Batch of 4 targets.
Target 1
Amino acid sequence: MGGTTGTHLDGGQRLQVLDALVTVLSGLYAHLPAKRAAYATDPVQALVLLRRRAADLTDAEFHLAVTGIVLGLRDAHTRYRGPAVLRGHVAVLPFVVEAYGPWADPTFVVTKVDPDAGADGLPDGFEEGVEVVTWNAVPVARAVEVHADRETGGRADARRARALESLTSRPLDFAPPPDELWVDLGYRPRRTGRRGGSTEVREARFDWRVLAPGRAGTAVSARTREALKLAVDPAADAVRRAKRDRYAARRAWLDTSLPDVLAARPLDDRYGYLRLWSFDVADDDAYLDEVTRLLGLLPPCGVVVDLRANPGGLVWAAERLLQLFADPGRTGGPVQPVRFELAATPLTRQMALSPFNRLELEAWSASLQDSVTTGDPYSRPLPLTDPAWCGDRGRAYPGPAVAVVDATTYSSGDLFAAGWVDNRVGPLVTVGQASGGGGANVWTDTQVRDALVGTGVTLPDLPAGIGFTVAVRRAVRSGASDGVPLEDLGVAGIPYDLTRADLLDGNRDLLTFCTGLLDAAGTPPEILPADRGGTS
């Protein structure tokens, strides 16, 4: 593909980009103190220094330098968007690679092959289940490790998970195209793999292609109040949609009006399975209505709620959903949402005082003004979701529930996981150390520019379609974990290592593990078969 950048920026335009990022990161970025401490880096100073040599760089060098500085924050909410020439596109290979086994000794396998890729000349024997050995002549474990160093994620397992997610599907809004024009893959054919005793390794070449997956039909519109209440990783959502378009689900799911974000099916006559693909919905009431309807069609003795690879979305949708599974006798009261706080800086104080931000930021204003004398680095933490909304429907599923997350469960997915644990809704199973660790409400450069009206600070229009997203309000947990930030840490639960059967046979072992937890939780007497008109 090559590393083209598209539109040329002159020296003045490059300084505009750098000055805008310095203003936002130094005055608004919610995680700046923590990132400086965690990674021993100062992105603001790095941007100031880049300003001195910006005019001497090529366009590709400039964009890569800015991308590298912002990427060093390891924050998928805070991203630099290069020129708009590839906006909305994803570079893809005609297969997906995933890993199973323990962290220290993973095995990498092809788990999906594009059904429309046959015309591209897929090699004989290249199919789901082949073991990947090398990537461009580099041992695949090392290649993934190198790629992970260019990914976001505050923990090593999160970066590896993100590297696997983007290894064959790379969102071009937030990163340059792949350096290589093609990939040479070394693999062991499934029919002569290690189980058969053969050590044969074949090699095949695959070209990158570019797709435009488009926005989800349910997605939040950029100019609504909901757009300021998003907690989402837009890069991961682009990858999710690109994969959805190529790899249609082969399982017998129940019919749903929201197939882009939801799926459900019975596992047997006792247990059900609910897949939450995303929370990117403009209408959270319609979302809850559909989840409630699907839960009513599932067996009542227990449900597995799977949020793996959920990139987030509308905060309200994620946090209101918890009440459908919460037993008030166990939670000790209504579900408590996660709270959010602003960095206490001169800029956020000005923003909170601006009449243009009264509806959005006024609740944080008093504590931001008090921070001048108290020295607090953050405002008072307050919820984005009205606590009353977290109990306005009540429990919809009568049996116990277990939730599953992994290191690519991010943003509002992290909020859901935190609420699940902190409100004692049920067991949480984590593939990897914890959920992804995306703890913030994210705004775009356009939203930031609008919020600066009336502050005396302006953000210039960025040239050539360039933009950014930034974590504006950081999330801290409630309940037993009161005050603990979500960023980089994520939410830990019962650890689980994926197996080959999970990747190639519909999560067989994972679901057995989860239904074992449901067995241990027991079936409430009121929904035993004998009480539903059956025989004992």
Target 2
Amino acid sequence: MSSPSDHTAQRRLAAVLAADVVGYSDLMSRDEEGTLNRLRDLRRQVIEPRIQSHHGRLVKTIGDGFLIEFASPVDAVRCAVELQEAVAARPGKADAKPLQLRVGINLGDIVVEEDGDIFGDGVNVASRLQKMALPGGICLSGKVYDEVRGKLAYEFEDRGEHQFKNIGQAIRVFCLLEGMDTRQASGERRSARSHPEGPSIAVLPFVNISKDPEQEYFADGIVEDIIAALSRFRSFFVIARNSTFAYKGRTVAVQQIGRELGVRYVLEGSVRRSGPRIRITAQLVDANTGIHLWAEHYDGVVEDVFDLQDRITASVVGSIQPSIRTAEIERARRKRPENLDAYDLVMRALPYVWALEYEANKEAARLLDKALLLDPGYPLAIALAAWCRGQRIVYNWSKNLQEDKRETLRQAQAAAALAHDDPFILTVLGAALTITREYQRATSMLERALSLDPNSAWAWNRSGWLHNYQDDPEIAIQHFERSLRLSPFDPMAFNCEMGIGCAHFIAKRYDLAAQWQEKALMSKPRTAWIHRTLAPAYSLAGEADKARESVGELVKGYPGIRIADILQAMAFSKEVMSRFAEGLRQAGLPE
């Protein structure tokens, strides 16, 4: 996009609305003349009247899309909602797919040319948000949300921060009016935000008040273990660690956190470590009322850290549900490492394990290898090392596929032998068995993991992928949705979006397959492996240009990759793999 020249341009703050028609290329390929007539009628009868009634200015139309400028963010959002409602209510032909829009809205500085065209990051962010929206949905930036909240009676869903391509800073994204094709699933997600049956709790990141900022990982590790212990109580609903950590470093009212995560209780605290001495302070808060139910501090030495965690867990459980017996708390304990330095290394490795990126995977493996040199019998370290090796297989990073498959399964089984009732470790074994395509055993492991810890977002995620590999896309989508409910702000949520996208591909809903994978790519733009399944989704949805561009991005991340390499790494059924192969072939990837 060329920049306007200085002598003809002016700057101003504006709310920018970008919208496009879903599946435009597919609609045109089926009925070019009919589609053009429908778009002309849509613009004349729906779009232009509503722009005028909400004091907007139609800047331009671009094929299947259009760009609108508003002076007021409130007007922009009202106009977007009315547009979506009007489009959804329009009668359609029995033999034609209904028209749907995706809308993005941003508030930012724009540059206005003499002819009225607009440019700048204010426009670019709106365009990125539009691509992220589901069919029939609206995504808006945090700046727009800040201006409209409390002024409009709509239900917004916080989707966390996203890093968009060619945009310097992360953008906080809010969505409303989930799309028509996903209304049932999104309705389930929204209703689930009300308090579940039984006690529900979120454990926030504990504040590190040690003088050494390097102790941050130690405070995070304590929270990790408390969440794991609480998750084992089947009567509890516990938000996953990766979502509660979205609040790290932010000052947010407990009542707001309760509403956003859909929980009744919040546990918060701090950690001070000085040499061998450690003090953990914790307080349990009723998120409905903001009332503190109890507050306590726990003093000891570093070697006592696991006992201190157990005391905090017992206090939480005793305050919320006193009928839970001490014996059940005992069963919630993991097998502890013999060497605390190994524990430190595992805590440092965790963010790299979940990044699902090549360089991060190598760093995680390095830290875990060091941990296992110090404590060869540490089940969590063994399981995480197995999963890192499994990632190499799944994401086409392996230099020796057969050896990595054997070693992944060996390490996962070794960890499970040491900790046969640890749900995380059973989930790793289930994932390893999925990689080696032993689906019956994988199902058994994942079912056992979920019976032990129904709050494991990752176990629900792996179960979703297992159902995908077994050609059961509708159940897969339910399990990915469950994972997202347990961890709505999880940095790994994009992996669930990928899973939902692949489920739609299996069901031959290629437009939706591409849209969900686009959402995942928005969250993780540097993750080249996404293009292995996004490119064929574009191809079979009739988006040939996007498919070729997607393959281009894939080859940048994987020079020399071929269709055969991708098929060897993935575990879908032969019929689904043949469709992936055909889509990649159409997009120009060599055999």
Target 3
Amino acid sequence: MLDLLIKGGTLIDGTGAPARVADVGIRGDEIVEIGTIDAPARRVIDARGLLVTPGWVDIHTHYDGQVTWDSQLAPSFWHGVTTIVMGNCGVGFAPVHKDKREWLIGVMEGVEDIPGAALSEGIQWEWESFPEYLDALDRRPYALNIAAQIPHAALRAYVMGERGAENEEATGEEIARMAEAVREGMEAGAFGFSTTRSIMHRAIDGARVPGATAGLPELEAIARAVGDSGRGIFEVAPNGLSGDDLLAPQQEIAWMKDISQRIGIPVTFLCLQVSSAPDLWRDLLAECRSARADGADVTPQVYSRAVGAILTLENKINPFFESPTMRSLDHLPFAERVARLKADPDLRAKIVEEGAQGQTRKGDHYKKLFGDAWKDMYPVTTPIDYEPDPANSISAIAQREGRDPRAVALDALLEDGGRGAILHQMAGYNYGDLEAQREMLSDPDTVLGGGDGGAHVAVICDAGVPTFMLTHWARDRTRGARLPLETVVKKQTSDTARTYGLTGRGQVSVGYKADINVIDFDRLGFLQPHLTSDLPTGAPRLMQKTTGYVATIVNGVVIQENGEDSGARPGGLLRSAPVRRQAPVAA
């Protein structure tokens, strides 16, 4: 007797093999049969005319705090994701001494823009060491499977105290202690170690994230600790990620290649198109091909769409959020504020004049983003278009209509009762399309990442990237070539699972865990991103649901069906296991 039989679906198994019609039989949490199955089953899902795929494996999320209070893990929950990897970019919440908890919250708030008050209220601290953190998560049920990495910022502060927090150089003894803590974390089940070297990543007080300036002896000792475990990966948000230093990316690849070669561990790093050198990514992919030819395992983690922020009046992150006149309306209920703005053209004109000028609460970073970016901003359409035509930018509309782009932007935000939105393509859209992303995704040596689920919650909702991969790249794209559906599925299932050593996941194959999506491909799509205030303390975050996921199955259990949460929580903590033979270590 099978527990679940998925009957007659078009199977895309995650290996890259051509689609085929097949039944999938599940017993317990495992796939036990694929083909033509006539065995009885406790439940049958009629998948005729539907796609059957592995569940998506999202390797770049920041749910490190959210996992302590939330068993659902939305928005990823709504997008067919069945396994998440967190602890990316060097930030997270373990290991930690009690007196550094709020400081770590400040680091996460600054780097990943998760409200600090929500983290302070929501996180249920039950650990000090990283193994204790894993044990705390292991006691909780989740809808999804979760995997964690050891973050450099927390590790440095834990071992070095204030010296580590302030990015001072580690002593030999401190390096040894960090390496030992990593060794313990890996043996307890961490899936790797992460660090950031990006100048963009700063704590809420503006200081660079601990580890961002760490020397090679420190990085190498930690890498050896990962390597000694025979498992895991070294994840990097590299220096030069934002295009601030065009020589840095090649220098970063050089040391990553060296560490991977000599220690025998895989390394993955974030790679995207940057405005200051929009074709630099080609050189970086070529450098990685060369490194792989020399025996290193260095994998670019690429994006499927531009890094884009959703700007609204509701979340108050928009080109006018530092206008004194706009701020003078903050005390009003939202509907009344919108009514005042719509009714008073003089008030709007004053806000337009003040918009995108002067110092901002977030400092020069947001001033730069909003000050001269009208060509990169687009009124959000229904459905939302993530590859908009430059002819429809705020700048282009303003030029056609002979208007101030600030006035065009304010009018866009006032649409739909003040719930209009602007998509700001902040990075990865230099040529006004997603051709760079298509080429990066087409490279067999890249892996999909950068979705940032759980982070930048008030302005970015890229946890929906897995759905976008199917809708845009395999079905809907009109402004260039598409990607084969089998490639799109493989890129975010077996490829991502293999990169992180998530054995037994990422494929619909006999003996693999039953993490599966059943999808009505014709109906698959996005609902509009909307602001909800469901974080602890009522803090806001963007939420985006979908249509077309007929069922998402985790460990053999249906967690959502036709857009409804079943309430089942069959997921949980995954712990790493040795997946490679230890390579010889050079002296």
Target 4
Amino acid sequence: MKKTLLILFAVFSSFCLWAQSKSTGVVTLGAGMTAKLDLNNANTTATLTLTGSSDRWFALQFGSFGTGQGMANGQDMVYYNGTTLIDGHMVGVGNTPQTDTNNWTVTSNTVSGTTRTIVATRAFAGGTNDFTFSYSDTTIDFAYARCANASFVFSNHGGNRGYALNKVFNCEPPANPTANAQTFCQGATVNNLAASGGTGAEFNWYLTATGGTELSLNTVLTTGTYYVSQTISDCESNRVAVTVTVNTVNAPTASAQTFCNAATVANLQATGASGATINWYNVAAGGTALSSGTSLSTGTYYVEQTVGTCTSTRTSVSVQITVMGTPTAEDQEVCAGNGVWAIDVTISGEGFFFPVFYDTPTGGEPLDLDYVLETGTYYVSQSDGVCEGVRDAVVITVKPLPDTPTGNTTQQFETGDTIADLEITTVEGAVITWYVMQDINFILANESDMLQDGVTYYATQTIDGCESEYLAITADEVLANQAFSIKGFALYPNPVKDVITISAAESISGVNIYNLLGQEIMARQINNTTAEISVVKLPAGNYIVKATAVDGSTATVKIIKF
């Protein structure tokens, strides 16, 4: 029995114009035949490449079937009839296929040696009785046959027939995308990268030329090489290397800033790159740049710089606006010789503020605190060392100092005399004040302090709050020896280290010890004819010991403590 076996062939839908395409590749059939089917999803065109013996008829059936099912009625097929490719369909085993309207366009029919190669195309849909190709199909089935020799047409194929089932379509990678070297500012992401390719292409970015994981769109870019492919209809191209440069602009530097009373953004200071544009904000991110005339308030501001097209991150800057109050000073009188420090000023507000004095209402240099006042108008402001407030005027009237007291500059005294015994002449009603000199300082002394030989005492007189210059009087002791009026008085040891013993023929009521300035430094109640007094805590030096008897008589002794 003679029979013709046709190859049934199944096709996927749309094939891509760029590389939106897939192919079975060359499928080796028996009897010296091969077949390859390509699908282009872009123009929905199928391309068949069929080879067979150049001296006889051969046929290919395609579709979706199993072994033994290839000759079913209606199965689409094509065959070469010795001249061209014929479009037809099966009408049963042993019957000649029915010829259809030929929807295949032969683009090539060549012979090399004994092998004929035919290339033909048609639309996916074809025509009546044609198999409809679908790009979504994953496999295709082939059945094939050829005549046993050149004298046969559709019979006597013998063993020259067979099947090639479940031939897989593999996508054909599209052409590589196009992408140039690209430059960005810091903060750019993969989403900012640009590439061009086929219509509807999806671009895939990687860090490696092959393998690896596709980068997410929000991956932050760094300077280096990236790789891009394009995917069309689930087919991915090879990767193209793209050089990426990320320009980084450092944040400007700025320290905390303090302004007095009022300031604007124009007063703010920051250091950036040469030629950079500096912008200030009141928010750490986003927002609108503040204009130069915007008034500042105490708080945090943020500064960024732009170099070219790139902008840095922002630096936070603490800003303090110090509003200084105005001090008050009533018109007042001061004594001659006083400096501006003597002016009575009331500071306003809370905090550490101090007065600053001028002799002009505006401008000028501050007066030194020891600047000697004259009758006139002065101006005072308050400052915290950085900021200074408005000045207030104060009228100063300078009062003259009273005359210095008069008296002998050297005066004699007897042991036991006090400062009150020194003789001076003063204005009636004046307040007399006495001093002694300790190092370079005047120390207040009491009129009851005992005079000491060779010590200089200073007297002033004060009238209407003003104190005169000092009158210096040096005390000269008439009798430098010890003077005892207490009967049987004795004191020992002298010099002394720790304890002195005092005795007398009559009861002693008390003992007082003075330094050489006449200042009392120790007092003891005795009420006995003998007493021991510890001086161990006294510093080494000379002291005056004065004993007083119950009858009022006294004895004064100069001792040495070592």
